[in-house]
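Database export, one record per block. Field names are fixed; values are copied verbatim from the stored entry.
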Amino acid sequence: MLVVVATCSLLTVGGQTVFAPLLPAIIDDLGITSSQAGFALSTMTALSAVCRYPGGRVADQLSRKTVIVAAIGSMIVGLVILTTTTDYGRFLVGTAAVGIGAGLYLPSAFALLSDLFENRRGEAIGLNNAAVNLGGILAAGLAVAVLARTAWRAAFVPFVVLFLVVAALLHRWNDERYVVSRVTLSPRSTARRLFSQSRIRWMLVSAGLVMFVQRGAIAFVPLFLRTEKSFAPTLAAGTYAGFYLVGMVASPAMGRLGDRIGHASVTVRATFIATVGLLVMLLGRGQIPVVLGVLLFALGMTGFWPGMNAYVLALFPDDSMGGDFGALGTVYLGVGSLGPAYVGLVAERTTYLVAFLSLLLPLIASTVLGRWLSTHS
């Protein structure tokens, strides 16, 4: 089941990360601005955030299988719309449907992994995140291949086909029943559990800052490399894929390290590394230093999440784990959803270099918070 869930996670994130290398072609084809493109991606992320809590809560009260299959259905609908997009309005609708499905899926999938691997949560989540990063690599390669031969819309077709296959495997191999009944969300009790512990509160703030940086930076890394560092399109896409290649190694490694030394300790190391990497990427001269900076930034960004997820999952009650984790995701992903719109707007009014430099502040703040958590865990 881990393989099936990891594959679905790969497709879920791959279907979203494929937008970044396609963005220059999308902007040109639809005749939109960078701020409009950023708004569309922020809308996708915001809807994903909003759906995290209800997705996790429904998975707790009905079944993980019910929510996961429904989520896949929403993503398929959105991706099909994107394959026929001819205007900005339809593009927004397609990205919105993808965001809704992703939001419903992720807390249910993490809860399922936590159920199956209670004593190895960090490792299981790290392996799942490695598959997620593989999705980013494949998405970047797919985008390059598609743009070399046909229109950008064709990049979404493989995701539709593979999602259908994964849905069939989940239906067959997951022994849970499909359950349809009334669900009580109880947001007040969930909020009390989330905010009653200072450790959860501050980790939530840290996660929101990291997600803001990650969503904002990753959406525009290929454009940044092309406009500010004069990278060729292929090299920019390849460097973008390198971000996820590093994540494939870093995620399971950081998850295992967190199981040994403490997950809060891992998160502070990760944000510090990301800060150094972002500085090198922005200030480096020549292609090699810039690429190394991107890879170092990737090590920190992707290494943060296994530790953060395992840290908070261990603090949640078993009977409300999916809903609590989903609510947590709603908050930090909601903050992160502002990242692409922010970077797109600042870049439009100044430069991509200025926009990316400003992302150092939330990274530094997250590092300080992580240090405090690591000494109070």
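Remark 1: The chain has one domain: 2-375.
Remark 2: Residues 199 and 287 are 41 Å apart (CA to CA).
End of record.
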